[in-house]
Write a structure and sequence with these properties.
The structure holds 2 protein chains of 2 kinds. Chain A is α+β, with helices and mostly antiparallel strands. Helices cover 27% and strands 33% of the residues of chain A. Chain A has helices at 3-12, 16-30, 82-93; strands spanning 38-40, 43-45, 55-57, 60-62, 65-67, 103-116, 122-137. Chain A has a 3-stranded antiparallel beta sheet, with no helix packed on it. In chain A, a hairpin with a 5-residue loop joins strand 6 and strand 7. In chain B, the strands form 2 sheets. In chain B, strands 3, 4, 6, 7, 9 and 10 form a 6-stranded antiparallel beta sheet that branches. Classes of the chains: A alpha+beta, B alpha+beta. Chain A binds chain B through residues 34-35, 40-45, 48-51, 53-54, 56-57, 67, 109-110, 112-127, 130, and chain B through 1, 3-9, 11-12, 19-20, 25, 28-29, 32, 35-36, 41-46, 51, 54-55, 58-59, 61-62, 65-66, 69, 100-106, 128, 131.
């Protein structure tokens, strides 16, 4: 951190611990379950895309997505990597230079799609990494 | 049914449930087609609203894959044998474990050669393998034909069913044939008959000009040639869900790199 930064901190608090605590207090509020990094529902409908004449199955699939805060302190349900745990703390100390970890998929799953081709042959194929199964802070 | 892309998250009340605009729909379609590895949206020609045997078979495999993803392999096998044992067999599901893709092929041509008693009756089948995606290699292939029970004229009779690969065609005489398999069947037998045509299919993919189709012929135990239809083999004029077809299991032989849009 720069000297200017230290001056600002001195203005705001008497000790780095208090500044950290303050920030921690603020971040802890945003780390509660409602805004924390987690999986959200997202459904992709082949039927609504008008594809029911050539896609036999499925009618659609739950792709899901990850969203939420990865702030200090990272809770157990956030599936954080050890590195992410360290990064949240560093972000707290140095927010301009080190970002918070990202809320992203930790486990992805394939789906199988059954469909006709132009010649009315039927194809069954597995497509990897189509569905988010769990999210975490990276 | 409120939209193409729905976000059911109750924690984001400001997310609007809405139908995609035309441009958004087109973008979504393009992106998903790209993921599926398709250059364009397929436009199959389907004769009726009902599925024939090939889609039904593939639907069985699809359901077994979906069940397998959810539960233990042993559990899904026991489930499978109680649902539709006459269609996809355990044999096929074993191929499925190793396959990246399964494809069933429509029979393009079925000629019933009803000839004089002195000549050999046979049925011909042809499949178009030219649309197989690049980078996929056949690991197993089957020709499937349904046999119905026929006891009226052939009580206690057995048939010798032979499947041939056509290796040469001639306008003025019978085709040159290569015997793939012969099988003795009871007239009273009923169910799907599967014939391994893996090597034949690989040849057809590597050398499309060698793809002259298959022939099947049937003889009685006394050596008389009879039409496959008389022996109970279902053809094009039979029930939709019992039409003959070909199925192939594939494994990726090269990594497909998706081009950036």
């Amino acid at each position: 951190s720069t000297g200017r930064r230290r001056q600002q901190n001195r203005n705001r608090s008497n000790s780095p611990q208090e500044a950290t605590k303050g920030s921690a207090h603020t971040d802890y509020n945003s780390s509660d379950q409602k805004t924390a990094c987690r999986k959200h529902e997202l459904y992709v409908s082949f039927r609504e895309l008008g594809w029911q004449d050539w896609i036999i199955a499925p009618e659609g699939y739950a792709a899901n997505y990850c969203d939420g805060e990865c702030s200090f302190p990272l809770n157990a349900h956030m599936n954080a990597t050890n590195h992410a745990i360290v990064q949240t703390l560093v972000h707290l100390m140095n927010p301009e230079n080190v970002p918070k970890p990202c809320c992203a998929p930790t486990k992805l799953q394939a789906i199988s799609v059954l469909y006709y081709d132009d010649n009315s042959n039927v194809i069954l194929k597995k497509y990897k990494n189509m569905v988010v199964r769990s999210c975490g802070c990276h | 049914g409120s939209g193409s892309v729905l976000d059911g998250s109750e924690l984001q009340p400001n997310f609007i449930h809405r139908r995609l605009r035309n441009q958004e729909k087109r973008e979504m379609q393009k992106e998903i087609l790209s993921i599926l590895g398709l250059n364009h949206r397929p436009r199959p020609h389907l004769n009726s609203g009902k599925y024939n045997s090939a889609p039904l078979f593939m639907l069985d495999l699809y359901n077994s894959m979906s069940t397998e993803e959810k539960s233990d392999v042993d559990q899904y096998r026991s489930l499978f044998t109680t649902t539709r044992p006459a269609l996809a067999s355990l044999h096929d599901t074993e191929f499925l474990h190793d396959a990246d893709m399964v494809m069933s092929f429509v029979n393009l041509v079925e000629n019933d050669r009803e000839l004089s008693p002195q000549r050999r009756h046979h049925k011909e089948f042809k499949f178009n393998l030219s649309q197989i995606p690049e980078g996929e290699a056949i690991t197993a292939a089957e020709f499937r034909v349904y046999k119905e029970c026929v006891t009226r004229a052939f009580r206690n009779e057995t048939f010798l069913l032979s499947v041939f690969q056509v290796v040469g065609e001639h306008p003025d005489r019978d085709a040159d044939l290569f015997l793939l398999e012969s099988r003795r069947l009871w007239a009273a037998e009923e169910g799907w008959l599967e014939f391994d045509i893996t090597a034949t299919s690989n040849l057809w993919v590597m050398s499309p000009h060698h793809n002259l189709g298959l022939q099947i012929s049937v003889e009685t135990s006394s050596g008389w040639s009879i039409s496959p239809k008389e022996a109970g083999l279902v053809g094009r004029d039979g029930a939709l869900e019992r039409q003959p077809f070909m199925v192939a299991f594939f494994k990726v032989s090269e990594v497909r790199i998706r081009t950036a849009r």
